[in-house]
Amino acid sequence: MAQPEKKIASLLSGYGTIVMDTMMFIYEFQAHPRYGLFTRPFFRLLSGGKIRALTTTITLAELLVHAYSQGDARTAKIYRSRIANYPNLTLRPISSDLADRAAELRAKYKLPLPDCLQMSPAGDRDVFLTNDGDLSIVEKEIPVLLIDDIMQRFELGG
């Protein structure tokens, strides 16, 4: 296992479920020059079964918006397939229990509902992986890791 993968795996081993925000997929699918330094090793760990993660159908909807706004049905089809078939990734639909949890988070923290829906599967032993610093406000209930912080900690990308 390469050095970034070892560091990321070690960091994430202390948590239960890794709940992924949409940004992770955007950075990976679009081969972001900076954030790919984190997402590439993360997704290698995921595809290799070293970690398991989940995301909600909110991620799928958010990814498809860009493709559809560009009239790009081919990319939309690719995104749907990649999300649905990615090894060791669970795509969780928004259930009434998750909607209820999201409503609690929204009422308490005044965050946008899509963000609350994304975080709703995570409990206090899990971690929400994002790059949206505003979401750290839920830290007392849901551990939040910011990609920028991880990259700085592990000196990924300078």
**How many structural domains in the coordinates?**
1
Distance between the termini: 21 Å
CATH topology: Rossmann fold
Helical content stands at: 40-55%
Order of helices and strands: HEHHEHHEHHEEH
Strand coverage percent? 5-15%
Q: Quick one: overall form?
A: globular
CATH architecture: 3-Layer(aba) Sandwich
List the strand order in the largest sheet.
3-2-1-4-5
Distinct helical segment count: 8
Structural Rg: 15 Å
**CATH class placement:** Alpha Beta
Quantity of strands, as a count: 5
Unreliable spans are none
CATH level-four homologous superfamily name: 5'-nuclease
Average pLDDT reading: 95
Largest sheet: 5 strands, parallel
The secondary-structure class comes to: alpha/beta
Q: Any chance you could write out the topology, listing elements then pairs?
A:
Layout: H1 3-12, E1 18-20, H2 22-29, H3 36-47, E2 53-56, H4 57-69, H5 73-85, E3 89-92, H6 96-109, H7 113-119, E4 127-130, E5 144-146, H8 147-153
Helix pairs in contact: 1-3, 2-3, 4-5, 6-7
What does this 3D model show about the protein?
The structure is a single chain. The chain has eight helices and five strands, in the order H-E-H-H-E-H-H-E-H-H-E-E-H. With 158 residues, it is an alpha/beta fold. It has a single domain, classed as Rossmann fold. A five-stranded parallel beta sheet has the order 3-2-1-4-5. It starts with a helix and ends in a 5-residue tail after the last helix. The model has no long low-confidence stretch (mean pLDDT 95).
